[in-house]
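Quick question about two entries, pasted in order.
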Amino acid sequence: MDMIIFEVGLALALITTVGFISNKLRFSVIPFYILIGMAVGPHAPHFWIIDLRFIESSSVIEFMGRLGILFLLFYLGLEFSVKRLMKSGKSIVIGGLFYVALNFISGLLLGWMMELPLKETLVVCGIMTSSSTAIVAKVLVDLKRTANPETEIIMGMIMFDDLFIAIHISILSGLVLSGAASVGAVLLVSLSALLFILLFLVIGRKLVKYFDKALLVPSSELFLLSVMTLLFLVAGFSEKLHVAEAIGALMIGLVLGESSHVKRIEHYVLPFRDFFGAIFFFGFGLTIDPSALGGAVGMAVVAVILTLICNYLSGAMAGRLAGVSPQASLNVGFTLVCRGEFSIIMANIGKAGGLMPSVQSFAVLYVLLLAVLGPLLTKESKSIYKLFKRLRGERKPEQAKERS
């Protein structure tokens, strides 16, 4: 009996339920999607037609999850655009570089401590370096901090981080997915991938005016079909060149982000991003056996501690360079702690390349811990800052006068 449609309906029912719970709790929905996926899957019970193992529909859910990655990265490109990336200046270059360097080095350190092979170590570096743009943006909006002086620094740093991750994914794809064995072959694949990205962005900017003319159609159906055609052709062609399909989606998003139709594109794509993005996180959870996570607990806890230290230092450095208050600097570091979609994309690359399964287990625990800790630390940053001051023995001016 063909139960694919019914199973997909069950999956959507579970996703929707935890979405309502997350909304009620006013918390990031990503951990809920992953957790409900982990709670079901191959190890789940089977009652009559209620089959929570999702065996028949697994390939369909996996494909829909791949679409989720494409729409997440495509929308991200639309939000930033090449021009905006180039104009962001100091906040991107200095704060972002320091943030990426510290977190990437912490990944190398963790890989060395756990005696991981080179490929696995580079995947771990990507997992630990990539903040979650989706969670960060949601936290800033929910806490009403979009107008805060440090928010510009946060967005600049996360844009730099996203740009770095795009390059890292392309290199990692060449190393892990191409099957290249020698150092020369890996470098050739990686350099060709980077060359393709640069050429695409340069040529794409020249073609924006032609895209604008092609998209100047009143029919919403033809407009959407045209956008989807560009997205899928570029993403598919990127994959043929051993550049992750998600990077192809990001690149065409960056190009179309400079189009005069960008607001209309965002309007049509947003529902696809939210719908397929939710299935992406759920599908990732389905691939995880909770009983196999125990071996990654120690590694995940060490990684979380390293990330908190690195983010505190990078936030302090970026805040000092930008001239904001120490408390605002703490906000920068804590807000960027959140991990999510990019870390999972990295883990999926590792899985596709046949790397150690423990890397995926590590990614799950690491993302879950920081997707929960990040918003909590950001929300309580004011109290934490006061606690830091007390621990350092600092007193308010009034208290100092009374005691003198």
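Here is the second entry:
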Amino acid sequence: MSWFLLVLAGLFEVGWAIGLKYTGGFTKPIPTAATAAAIVASMVLLGLAVRTLPIGTAYAVWTGIGAIGTVLCGIWLLGEPATPARLICIGLILAGILGLKLAS
């Protein structure tokens, strides 16, 4: 269950990171509120997950999910470049996440 909560926390991290782009510098109330809600949800879920998972592993996995998801959403939603170097780096982050999961 803790791993599920951690993955969900990582997905909310992607949501708030991408949400920042839509807040207009926190001038748009609805995107700002949704982004703030995603931040709170992400932190609460991370806090629940670390009750039973090692903090170093959980934090690294959480940030890795957030980083990968944010880059992929940036490519998909915002037209950011999908260069080979960026995709290789995403693969390296994913390998690190999987390695931490297998080592826990």
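Reply: The mean pLDDT is 95. DSSP finds four helices and no strands in the chain. Hope that helps.
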